[in-house]
Design brief:
CATH architecture: 3-Layer(aba) Sandwich
Cofactor: NAD(+)
Bound molecules: nicotinamide-adenine-dinucleotide, galactose-uridine-5'-diphosphate
Distance between the termini: 40 Å
Strand content: 15-25%
CATH superfamily: NAD(P)-binding Rossmann-like Domain
CATH topology: Rossmann fold
InterPro entries: Epimerase_deHydtase (IPR001509), NAD(P)-bd_dom_sf (IPR036291), UDP_G4E (IPR005886)
Catalytic activity: UDP-alpha-D-glucose = UDP-alpha-D-galactose
Strand order of the largest sheet: 3-2-1-4-5-6-11
Number of strands: 16
Subunit structure: Homodimer.
Protein name: UDP-glucose 4-epimerase
Length: 344
């Protein structure tokens, strides 16, 4: 059987593709290359250029491959962008996910893993780690667009022979320990990537968005999870669904929060470089603190993270960023077998 990975040319999806191939699965990728890169897709995966909302490309993929499961990463993932352009987020994350779910059910595919987000929680009344049972208070169109997709999945699974696992990712960072994949997003807004780029001189400064949050040092607190642990959870979710598992919604984080200032310190330590920091106002749509209670994922999926260290996450992100700097300093040549061939 074959797994369809939507968004497999993106940051997290490209790691998932490698992980599935490592496990001996056949993999098909569907990606519109809006924010992803063709060269990021492992050459052993079959690549389709297209949109998850396009029924004709989906029909072709389902006709040409024996797909038994869909892992759906394709989407837009930048909180402030969603505040500025909400309808684009409801289109790409909600309407097109609806089209994909419908096409999946129509052809009788029963297993679906969905990229949801900690942004569905918003700011909670307590600073304790958040469980899946918490009241959901998404603060941005991004969070709402993903919550609506969770709701569609819940209703679709109740009505059809179809099951899903929605994984609520906390803040994903880091890169493949074997150096095959990493975050290559252009104009990235994610803190660890932005800080690594600044340490390498690709940016002039890092903005700290908000110093007056009700947290220990006044800056935003997040639960940073290594991308390799996250894709492991997806592998376990697939196994669970193939074993007949009922629908599940699970947190993917470590249960430990770090402030923006703590992250910047980690980047200084790892890189051995200092850089300019600019204290800026809060960013619209941001919650003060979001930390996972990951107990349910451990219980249901036997998920045991093996990369849970901020230092380790930052080191792998920095190594990938350094690799990108070296890669970009060469002339980029033609693509061959889906991988970028670098001249020189
Ligand atoms: N990065 C994080 O910290 C984080 C946290 C929580 C949830 N997520 C979710 O995980 C998923 C992957 O995020 P990422 O960080 O890898 O982002 P990314 O932008 O690197 O990857 C998204 C991929 O999907 C593709 N894509 C977007 N819209 C598409 C469409 N309509 N049809 C086909 N392809 C499309 C893009 O070209 C890209 O390759 C997203 O759904 C995101 O919301 C990410
Ligand atoms: O240049 C920056 C970038 C970020 N931050 C701060 O760092 C923290 C993390 O911000 P990120 O932009 O790295 O991540 P978000 O928490 O906004 O959101 C990320 O994680 C969420 C889940 O918590 C979503 O799923 C989303 O896809 C993903 O962008 C926040 O307090 C933010 O204000 C800065 O101070 N400066």
């Amino acid at each position: 059987m074959t797994v369809l990975v939507t968004g497999g040319a993106g940051y997290i999806g490209s790691h998932m593709v490698w992980s599935l191939l490592d496990a001996g699965e056949r993999v098909v990728v569907l990606d519109s290359l809006t924010t992803g890169f063709r060269w990021a897709v492992a050459p052993e995966a079959r690549f389709y250029f297209g949109d998850v909302g396009d029924r004709s490309v989906l029909a072709r993929i389902f006709a040409e491959n024996e797909i038994d499961a869909v892992v759906h990463f394709a989407g837009s993932a930048v909180v402030p962008e969603s505040v500025a352009n909400p309808l684009a987020y409801y289109d790409n994350n909600t309407a097109r996910t609806r089209a994909l779910i419908a096409a999946t059910i129509d052809v009788g595919i029963r297993h679906f893993v969905f990229s949801s987000t900690a942004a569905v929680y918003g700011t909670q009344d307590t600073s304790d780690p958040v469980t899946e049972a918490a009241t959901l208070r998404p603060q941005s169109p991004y969070g709402r667009s993903k919550l609506m997709s969770e709701m569609m999945l819940e209703d679709a699974a109740a009505a059809h022979d179809f099951s899903y696992v929605a994984l609520r990712y906390f803040n994903v960072a880091g890169a493949d320990p074997l150096g095959r994949a990493g975050q290559s997003t252009l104009g990235a807004t994610h803190l660890i990537k932005v800080a690594c780029e600044t340490a390498l001189g690709k940016r002039r400064k890092v903005d700290v968005f908000g110093t007056d949050y009700p947290t220990a040092d006044g800056t935003g607190v997040r639960d940073y999870i290594h991308v390799s642990d996250l894709v492991e959870a997806h592998g376990s979710a697939l196994e669970y669904l193939r074993g007949g598992g009922e629908p599940l919604v699970l947190n993917c984080g470590y249960g430990e929060g770090f402030s923006v200032l703590q992250v910047l310190d980690a980047v200084r330590r790892v890189s051995g470089r200092d850089f300019r920091v600019n204290y800026a106002p809060r960013r619209p749509g941001d919650a003060a603190q979001v930390v996972a209670d990951p107990s349910l994922a451990r219980l249901k999926l036997d998920w045991v993270p093996t990369h849970a260290s901020l230092e380790h996450i930052v080191q792998s992100a920095f190594d990938w960023e350094s690799y990108l700097s070296r890669k970009n300093s060469f002339d980029e040549g033609p693509e061959e077998n889906g991988r970028l061939v670098v001249n020189g």
